[in-house]
Amino acid sequence: MYTEDDLRTAVATGAITAEAADALRNSVRVSREAPAGDEEHFRLINSFNDIFVTIAAILLLVAMAGIGQAITPNLNGPPPFSGLLVAGAAWGMAEFFTRKRRMALPSIVLLLAFVGGVFVTQLGTIVMLFEGDNFGNENARLAGLLLSASALITAGAAWLHWRRFMVPITIAAGAGAVAVTVIALVVTAIGPKQIDNPQDIVMPLVFILGLAIFGFAMRWDTSDRERQTRRSDVAFWLHLLAAPMIAHPIFHTLGVTEGSTIGFGGAFAVLGVYVLFGIIALAIDRRALLVSALAYVLVALTFLFDRFGAVELNVALTALVIGSALLMLSAFWSPIRRVVVHQLPETLQARLPISAPLSA
Predict the structure, then answer these.
(1) Quick check: 355 and 346 in contact, CB under 8 A?
(2) Cα–Cα distance between 113 and 62 in angstroms, integer?
(3) Are 90 and 110 in contact (CB under 8 A)?
(4) Which is nearest to 91 in space by CA: 110, 105, 72?
(5) How do residues 102-120 score in pLDDT, each as one tens digit?
(6) Among the four residues 47, 71, 255, 280, which has the most C-beta atoms within 10 Å?
(7) Neighbours of 61 (CB within 10 A)
(8) How far apart are CA 127 and CA 93, in angstroms?
(9) Using an 8 Å Cβ cutoff, are 237 and 111 in contact?
(10) Which of 35, 83, 32 is nearest to 61 (CA)?
(11) What is the pLDDT of residues 162-204, one digit of tens each?
């Protein structure tokens, strides 16, 4: 299978002309009766060698973490040397497997290991400085500031990784680190000891930051309406990050996460929100919102079937309804999306991903 990245490389190296690449894209588009963007491609593996390399890389990273743990065996917290060794090993392997071999799955794993290693290194160092228990009790505000600084430095490390390797998921990792920075700063400003229920503060912040990341993802999306460049891949991972940050606070407010407190009103509200998510997903041609909210809808439907008497079959009926609906939506995604998009203002249509053949 040839990806968009392969086509762009072939054009850049002169193997084929830009016209030939466009002709191939149009041929695939016509044969599938859908724009290439509607398939929402993203490259994960090219061959089994990707999986082989990923397994080997994970084993090496685990070894680095174990060596780092042995250096500070009595530390009550994240071992800083483990994070440092993991981050260094991840960067070193990325120089070959990402920069030279351009292997997708190993690149994703190595990026996550690098970012996580950088963050763990800082957390472990902070724990060492504050000697464990004193870190969380007597110096709460300073701890919050240090946590914020650690997350911000991690975002900076992600930016450096992006400048060097340009792995699409890197932008999402950096955005996640910035979100942690903002949450830590707000909680620190209020005062950790002044907050009776942290969820009352954290959930609204997560929702707002999720909307901000969603808007950031749309900026990447609207700059590549035909989804032929790396910008579309970056948007994919940003949407994947933003979706649960938007969905979880909403369904938490509706009582889904509490289980028994959902009630009939909450169950129907969950279904209504999911329908709204579906319309948004169709409009922007991204399925992340639907996937992130799926678990909450399953809970709501199971509750409704149970209350309406289908106690023994509630799980089976829920799976049947949701599974059938998602399969139908997947099968007819393009025509349904075209109807939804054509109901929107023309100015908005002009900014959304292509919803019809380019020749139309």
Answers:
(1) no
(2) 10
(3) yes
(4) 110
(5) 898 999 999 999 999 999 9
(6) 255
(7) 24
(8) 28
(9) no
(10) 83
(11) 999 999 999 999 999 999 999 999 988 887 667 777 788 899 9
Residue 322 corresponds to which amino acid?
I
Residue 353's pLDDT band (cuts 50, 70, 90): confident
Tokens of 359: 């020749």
Two tokens, residue 332: 């007819």
d(CA 5, CA 299): 39
Query: What is the residue whose two structure tokens read 């991840």?
Result: 90
The 3-class SS string of the chain reads CCCHHHHHHHHHCCCCCHHHHHHHHHHHHHHCCCCHHHHCCCCCCCCHHHHHHHHHHHHHHHHHHHHHHHHCCCCCCCCHHHHHHHHHHHHHHHHHHCCCCCCHHHHHHHHHHHHHHHHHHHHHHHHHHHCCHHHHHCCHHHHHHHHHHHHHHHHHHHHHHHHHHCCCHHHHHHHHHHHHHHHHHHHHHHCHHHCCCHHHHHHHHHHHHHHHHHHHHHHHHHCCCCCCCHHHHHHHHHHHHHHHHHHHHHHHHCCHHHCCCCHHHHHHHHHHHHHHHHHHHHHHCCCHHHHHCHHHHHHHHHHHHHHCCCCCCHHHHHHHHHHHHHHHHHHCHHHHHHHHHHCCCHHHHCCCCCCCCCCC
